Give the backbone structure.
Amino acid sequence: MSDGLQFAGIDDIVVHYRVDGPADGPKLVFSNSLGTDFRTWDAVTARLSGRYRILRYDTRGHGLTTCPEGAYAIERLADDLAGVMDAAGLDRATICGLSVGGVTAQQLHKAHPGKVRALILCDTAAKIGDDAMWQARIDNALGPDGIAGMAEAILQRWFSDGFPKTDPVAFAGWRTMLVHTPAAGYAGVSHALKDGDLRSHCARIDVPTLVVCGAEDGATTPAMNKELAGAIPGARYLEIPQSGHLPCIEQPAALADAIAAFMEEHGGG
């Protein structure tokens, strides 16, 4: 069952979202990465939507969601997620966040703990990068060459070495998604990552947590994800071979299987 594409007014923006799966299924929410929209989860949710009530949405400044000018904060991104969950009628859910989506999921637990049943933190960290790195990204995104000028370096971190050769057509399509991201949205979310730091919150995460990472992730490396898992009480770490930063694209079956196993183990399957 699909409720199709929908829109919700949340604070100062209109958020684009989609709900799939049986109304009485265990609730599963996906939050996407910088420079993408919720279509990156398509191949994963296609394998899960028969069993779970699934919510996907486009992050502020991405996809069909409104793109305000200026800096965003990780607190704002988490409040957006809380708002879209309310609009979709989902209360306590398992939150699966990729990269900035994973940081957003951690902030959601901090600010709205009642909405989080469990966490799946995918290719992320409690603090990603440093101020200089993100300021350079912001300046480049808003500069004359825009995101296209950074695209090749970003794609190198996104995907395993083999992906552009084994599936060049898909690789070209995902590159198009990246470069079509509004510069203001890319810069705004980069500000949220520049200032967002959930390291002091990790020890307070009191829900079942799975940390997943592509073995060839060049953006948030396996070492970073292992460190995150070690900082969260009881968290488990899982590495997915032959994948870079986006296992939802490169290895969707392996990621879907890991999500389903985790959900079943913790009573949500």
